[in-house]
Amino acid sequence: LGLLGDLRRALDAGDVELHYQPKVRFDGHVSGLEALVRWVHPDRGRVPPDEFIAIAESSGLMPRLTEYVLETALAQVARWRAMGLEVPVAVNVSPRDVHSPGFAGAVAARLARHRVPPGALQLEITEHVLLEDPQRAADTLAGLTAHGVKMSLDDFGTGYSSLVHLRRLPVSELKIDRSFVARLAVDNEDAEIVRCTLDLAHSLGLLVVAEGVEDDETWERLRDLGCDAVQGWLVAAAMPPDETTAWLRARG
Ligand code: G
Ligand code: G
Ligand code: NA
Ligand code: MN
């Protein structure tokens, strides 16, 4: 499979890009930007992230990918801060990253090197971090949180026994998976799931972001249900850095 070697070379050459998708509150405030990797293969064209992330995951290249994404995202955060744009950036990290010894320290060192305050970085994890070694994962996340890095629980509702995990993970934000959000306005069961998730998350003091918001009706329902922020094509798709800068400036 040549794709793995190509991906490794693309990371070394800096040919993998990050695009940024806003998370916005209902009053319009931009609460963060999620970094999403984009890779255009010289022969095959755009490779879907799901595809090459799975390859990185199964081949052991994931730590390298995450390191690349963190480095690129923090350099961008520093540039935005220099322009007076102080929006936090969220980076997706895999269970493998969270289990690798020294991960919390490496993140802290990287923040220091870029002179980015820890509160300007969010890490998006999934419940899968607790599958392998829950204690080590909890320790790593506690270390990151103690340093001031914000943790966000991604794809909520798609894992197993989510409630147990919520209590064990030091997260400050929960993202409701878009599979529950997409048909919220037309499906009563999905609406109930979202309502219960909001109740639960808020009772635990978490902020809630709804993913995959594509239309006004869904936006209004989420607002009326007391959701904190949304992410989705209705607001903006993931944008290249320059377009993101323009988007942020246009928002004031
Ligand atoms: O961006 P969509 O943009 O197509 O992303 C598809 C999947 O890839 C999502 O599950 C998303 O979380 C994941 N993904 C995107 N960028 C990254 C990244 O930098 N690291 C990891 N681990 N996953 C990512
Ligand atoms: O797993 P994660 O939540 O990180 O995945 C983010 C994925 O969702 C990316 O592939 C991103 O491009 C996609 N996405 C973002 N906004 C929307 C949306 O409004 N609708 C749909 N269908 N996908 C979206
Ligand atoms: Na994510
Ligand atoms: Mn998600």
TrEMBL record:
Residues 1-252 form the EAL domain. It comes from the Bacteria. This is Cyclic Di-GMP phosphodiesterase RmdB. It comes from Streptomyces lunalinharesii. The chain holds residues 423 to 674 of 702 of the full protein.
